[in-house]
From TrEMBL:
UniProt protein name: NIDO domain-containing protein
GO biological process, one term: cell-matrix adhesion
PANTHER family: MUCIN 4-RELATED, SUSHI DOMAIN-CONTAINING PROTEIN 2
Highest classification ranks of the organism: Eukaryota, Metazoa, Echinodermata, Eleutherozoa, Echinozoa
Record-annotated NIDO domain positions: 36-185
SMART domains, A to Z: NIDO
């Protein structure tokens, strides 16, 4: 399946998402999307967007071990989870559209998608979230949308000014980290247990 990392804080499947103004979920346009922070990001004012696909080999095992530990601690029925593929997208120190200069407020956030071939998960990491919207756009949408108008999950505070506090919230008891199981249509966003990972 074609995957696109969009500048606006969206990872989309099947087609790019050019809309800078986030929509409320559910969005029934046929495009599944993962939205770590769908907002009016403008990297022309500084900051970077980077992404990479990683397969599990001995030289990359450290990042897999750390991510696997997060999944095992978050979902008690996944105590033997061992990922084999990972995709990491990072928006680092990005400004918003309409920012006046290089010293404008910046956001840093990341999405990590991973699978063992059977079970799939997404981890959203947040650091230094200083703006919720850019220009005249709506505050950011955070979550998932299957594109079918039925299956979606919107993180509490999405599309409100409160989304700027996402770096202090969590669904697993670790500030700035949200973890979701994404391999079926019923996206699970609540952890079965919490841990200090």
């Amino acid at each position: 399946m074609l995957m696109q990392v969009n500048n606006n804080g969206v990872i989309s499947f099947l087609a790019a998402v050019s809309q800078f103004n986030s929509y409320s979920f559910p969005v029934a346009d046929g495009r599944p999307i993962i939205t770590p922070f769908w907002a009016d990001v403008d990297t022309r004012k500084g900051g970077t967007l980077s992404y990479r696909e990683v397969l599990r080999f001995a030289q990359d095992d450290g990042i897999f071990l750390a991510a696997d530990d997060i999944i095992r601690a978050s979902f008690v029925d996944m105590k033997f989870f061992l990922s084999s593929w990972m995709f990491i997208a990072t928006w680092d120190s990005v400004a918003f559209y309409g920012a006046s200069n290089q010293s404008a407020a910046r956001n840093s956030f990341q999405a990590v998608m991973m699978t063992d071939g059977r079970y799939s998960f997404a981890i959203f990491n947040y650091r230094d979230i200083n703006w919720a919207a850019g220009g005249s756009s709506s505050p950011a949408q955070v979550g998932f949308n299957a594109g079918d108008g039925v299956n979606y999950y919107s993180v509490p505070g999405s599309r409100t000014a409160a989304v700027v506090d996402i770096e202090t919230t969590s669904n697993i008891g670790v500030s700035g980290r949200w973890v979701f199981r994404t391999d079926n249509s019923n996206i699970k966003g609540l952890a079965s247990t919490t841990s200090g990972v």
